[in-house]
């Protein structure tokens, strides 16, 4: 999956969400009759939302704010912060792989009910898999699904290829849906799922473009959460979200906070916490390689040579949010140290402007004054784009713009509408943009997001799971397939070394920082949050594990 900045659907108009969320409630509205807290206020900096509760769509409001995981649940709850740990049984009590990771046998939990009171069963699980199999738009991980069968409480799923590398995606990132509801939906890829019915502990109470409210339901299969109501507020941008966290209006978010110690932690150091838990995922500058002259790997390598990753880490990421990626392979260290190919061990990225100029000259580019011209004589220009409210990414792009000017590339920074940006990047209608990769237990997910030819779509066709830059390398695709189907560690190592060589030599995406699945939270009303001492789950409210976090919370004494 991706551990990533949450996906957003934003309206064109800008609304004062923070002001709206701060008023309208009495001082005791968030507490029960015993003056104990009953409401948890969750926020994201994604702007006004368009109602869409479809749990499969990464662009829906349910995914943008993260509340889909409070209504719908996965089979097993993996923890990407500790990927080697066994997953927690959830809707499945057991998941067993066989046949070289091509067959999955799931034992489905008894005694679970949907929020409308109907029983959850193996038939619902099999239906969910069949729905994904026959609906290409829902099969965002391009899983090679074959036959799905049931026998009592067991569901057996067969795949056309080994799924060693997709275990987390299959078990933790796919929400189970009720057959009696979804079998009547005409187009599951576009339906907004107006009245969501799930197995999770919460049900939808109300929706507005600014705030979505969920209430606990009394027939949940686990012990009922202590949090009786969840209020998701979508703030206009990072600054509005940070202000809400600092003053206690918001209690949980995944947001970049510039100067986080001063503007947030020190406002109330006893309760205001930040936990940036790192994972094997990265973010950086995706380049649309279908646009000339950026189809030339020499140009992309030269760009990489002048982009100052440390400046971005210090100035744009407040020296904490996305740790600098120093390895030339793009693999974060120290988490990925054991995966580095022998030829790249100890090789770190260094800014080398003169070296970049030499590289370009040798490939037929010419630097005339402060203008770089491609081999046809055309000046090299580049549009850099990211959502307007994401201040760290906009600052990153400004740094990239200045860096590229040193080799004569005239770049501009465009602050995009979030909805339009997501669509443009997924459909390949962009020139360059900061974005994240998926994360996993190995660097496979990083390279798969960037280079997988199986995700390659024509310009104008969405590819939500990756290959946004339309990188077409049969060699990389073959190596990814070989890694995924490898019978042993030696074969996986060979494939991983090949992927690193392709990445370094062709630079389809310029890596900058490591990803994190942490969050900012306030402990004044609720305790039990994950941290370094108890990293039981990512602290990001948009991850599947968010429901596990809420189930751990208890009122602060």
Q: Count of DSSP E strands?
A: 22
Shape: globular
If you compute it from the alpha carbons, what radius of gyration comes out, rounded to the nearest whole angstrom?
23 Å
Distance between the termini: 36 Å
The total count of helices amounts to 17
Major sheet description: 4 strands, mixed
Overall pLDDT score:
92
Please identify the structural class as seen in this structure.
Answer: alpha+beta
Uncertain segments: 1-29
Strand content: 15-25%
Q: What is the percent of helical residues?
A: 25-40%
Strand adjacency order, main sheet: 1-10-9-8
Q: How is this fold's topology laid out?
A:
Layout: H1 17-22, E1 39-44, H2 61-65, H3 68-71, E2 76-77, E3 88-89, E4 92-98, E5 103-108, H4 122-134, E6 145-151, E7 154-159, H5 167-172, H6 179-182, E8 202-207, E9 211-216, E10 229-234, H7 238-246, E11 252-253, H8 260-263, E12 272-275, E13 278-287, H9 297-306, H10 309-316, H11 353-362, E14 366-368, E15 371-373, E16 381-387, H12 391-405, E17 410-416, H13 418-427, E18 432-436, H14 444-451, H15 474-485, H16 489-506, E19 509-516, E20 519-522, E21 526-527, H17 546-552, E22 554-555
Parallel strand pairs: 1-10, 16-17
Antiparallel strand pairs: 2-3, 4-5, 5-7, 6-7, 8-9, 9-10, 11-20, 12-20, 13-18, 13-19, 14-15, 21-22
Q: Care to give the gist of this entry?
A:
This protein has 557 residues and is α+β, with helices and mostly antiparallel strands. 27% of the residues lie in helices and 20% in strands.
